[in-house]
Amino acid sequence: MNKYIKLVIAGLMVAGGIFLMFNRQVGWGIVCVVLSIVPIILFFKNEYILLSLWKMRDQKLDEVARLLSNITDYKTQLHRSQYGYYHYMLGLTYAENPLKAEGLMKTALEYGMSMKHDRALAKFNLAIAALSRGNKTDAQRLLNDAQKLDTAGMLTEHIRTMKEQMKKPNMQKHMHNPNMRHRGKFF
């Protein structure tokens, strides 16, 4: 649903409440005016984003992806402050493939997120993607940024594990034995 339709619904509810108040049904008029707050809140906080945040708490990523797929055009359905969280949650649904989630996390950070721990998790996911590409310096910088943003200490264990992994040599590049003789094509 377009976000401006919610404001029209709220306006109609306020007008209906005022009409009821003038027709000596003050109680129902007050109820309509008070209930008109719901569409105004849903203008700023989309219902699909709220439901997907609720499902994210239970780690039900398939349901989060299903709820986010209901948002067809995020620029017309969401408020500007929720663009970042939309891309952030889409990126978390692609957690198995860090390279696919990297673009979504970068977009989420560009739009901005209000919570520091969300920005820390986004930078942590970007560090994972950078490390999987083999860019250790970028991964180290992103891990340090994530550690600064993680004031609650939710990612300290994961960041420590990543830093320990980065200290280990990359065995994919050093798989060959330098003492083994190089064989030609025909011998």
Write up what this structure looks like.
The chain has 187 residues and is mostly helical. Helices cover 70% and strands 0% of the residues. It contains eleven helices and no strands. It has helices at residues 3-22, 26-35, 37-44, 47-57, 61-68, 74-77, 83-93, 98-111, 116-133, 136-149, 156-167. Helix 5 packs across helix 7 (83-93). The longest helix has 20 residues, at 3-22. The protein is elongated, with a radius of gyration of 25 Å. The termini are far apart.
Which features would summarize this protein structure in a list?
187 residues; mainly alpha; 70% helix
CA radius of gyration is 25 Å
Number of DSSP helical runs: 11
- Strand tally, please? 0
Largest sheet: none
Order of helices and strands: HHHHHHHHHHH
Question: Which spans have pLDDT < 50 for at least 5 consecutive residues?
Answer: none
In short:
This protein is an all-alpha fold. The protein has eleven helices and no strands.
Write the layout of secondary structure elements.
Blueprint (H helix, E strand, L loop, with lengths): L2 H20 L3 H10 L1 H8 L2 H11 L3 H8 L5 H4 L5 H11 L4 H14 L4 H18 L2 H14 L6 H12 L20
Helix pairs in contact: 1-2, 1-3, 4-5, 5-7, 7-8, 8-9, 9-10, 10-11
